[in-house]
Amino acid sequence: xxxxxxxxxxxICKSGTSxxxxxxxxxxxxxxxxxxxxxxxxxxxxxxxxxxxxKATYEQGVEKDKFLxxxxxxxxxxxxxTSAHPEDxxxxxxxxxxxxxxxxxxxxxxxxxxxxxx
Amino acid sequence: xxxxxxxPSTLSVQEGDSAVIKCTYSDxxxxxxxxxxxxxxxxxxxxxxxxSNVGEKKDQRIAVTLNKTAKHFSLHITETQPEDSAVYFCAxxxxxxxxxxxxxxxxxxxxxx
Lengths: 118, 113
Prior knowledge:
The complex is a heterodimer.
Chain A: E1 4-7, E2 10-13, E3 19-25, E4 32-38, E5 44-51, E6 57-58, E7 67-73, E8 76-81, E9 90-97, E10 107-109, E11 113-117
Parallel strand pairs in A: 2-11
Antiparallel strand pairs in A: 1-3, 3-8, 4-5, 4-9, 5-6, 7-8, 9-10, 9-11
Chain B: E1 4-7, E2 10-14, E3 19-25, E4 32-38, E5 45-51, E6 56-59, E7 62-67, E8 72-77, E9 86-93, E10 101-103, E11 107-112
């Protein structure tokens, strides 16, 4: 299957600092990428849809000023957690869809990034 | 909006036995249903999927069935092996906008050797 690379795989930061997580589609172009958050032993919660060349679409309850998303190219989307606090500690996972028209491609996930805010 | 329910939340089976995980969805317009396997500390991996124009799909020991009328779909794993132990998520694709996926709550499968 297609490869989605996520970096870093884990990061520890101090409260109040910002952290950037990168998501790259290595062997295909993705006009749409998705960012999820996953708490321990829970399901994936969709945070936002990242659209290449336009603003991200955030799910209800997700602070767009807290979680900045940039989709500058067809192979790269970034999630920046600004002014991180301990409650932002979580497993963040990105995904990208292959294929042309919506709902025709498959969704592949990155390996996830574990953020710990001290 | 779409809602996906998944059962059971945990499942233990003996090696060699079969495992079945069931999901129901609420939006009758949903037309794509993938299944993902997630190992500890890793991202989900697509293992099989099915579209609404198909009732069943099989790939070696894994099969998925879809009942559009009842709005439920199931994952079947036969001849389970210890390496099948993981968390499995079902999902339904919402056929509008960016076709985002709504995930089930996950099933922790443990295959006992």
